[in-house]
Amino acid sequence: MAHPVLTEPQPAPQPRILVVDDDADLRELISNFLGQNGFDVHTAAQGRDMEKILARGDIALVVLDYMMPGEDGLSICKRLNEQSGPPVIMLSARGEEIDRIVGLELGADDYMAKPFHPRELLARIRAVMRRREARTNSGEKSPVSHFFGWQLDNIKRTLLRPDGVQVALSNAEFELLRVFLDRPGRALSRDQILDYLHGPNTDSFDRAIDVQISRLRRKLADDTNEDIIRTIRGIGYMFKPTK
After folding, report:
1. Closest by alpha carbon to 42, among 23, 15, 66, 67?
2. pLDDT for 39-91, tens place per residue?
3. Scanning 4, 134, 144, 225, which has its CA 20 to 30 A from the CA of 161?
């Protein structure tokens, strides 16, 4: 009688991270550090090189420089979000409030000002990936969320209006809408929303949340004038329960 062949369990594949930055020294520093901490790291100096790597598939997250020659990071971030691409953490030497607002508004999942410690970047990457995994698992349990005639597909990350027309959502807008859908009828402060979106150690701030909510409200506007996301004076915001 033949004995069954025992095989060694295969190790889990390393998450693939793409670092896009025109600074060769910084690319090497980030690549080496993340590689030592369990990631399969690929690098690109500009958007054109990035596209070739993305075309191979399976990129879990993009670390993207704000300012680069040729196509800049903001344009790339916007395009990735329009294509429902991987989550993005933006890096920038520009630490002004307006730059962070614009980066988050265009769909970055997090924003870090240079200089930074590699361990902080590692923590941010893990936090973004945990949130994305949790959202995916939630979507597997409830593939489609319904509210006031709207339909949010949690797998495809697409939004349909009550009349069936699809509304484009950036990754950041999708995550923000999920924060509200998961907590209907609860008044949420800006700090709470920031924690749910980016974790407790984010560099984001109240003004960025106000801008993102304003954009999401415009996309949720329809002929009923239903105030789906309410402003709660002195507290923050609340998603109106459907019942």
Report:
1. 15
2. 999 999 988 889 889 988 889 999 999 888 888 888 888 888 777 788 899 99
3. 134
Domain 16-134 has CATH 3.40.50.2300: yes
140-161 residues labelled b (16+ CB within 10 A) or e (exposed) = eeeeebebeebebebeebbbbb
Backbone angles phi, psi at 47, to 5 degrees: -60, -35
pLDDT at 13 over 80: no
At 23, give phi and psi (nearest 5°): -85, 105
Domain ranges for the chain, please list them. 16-134, 140-239
- The beta strands (E) that lie in the chain are given as 16-20, 40-44, 59-65, 88-92, 110-113, 144-147, 150-153, 158-160, 166-167, 187-189, 229-232, 236-239
**CATH node for 140-239:** 1.10.10.10
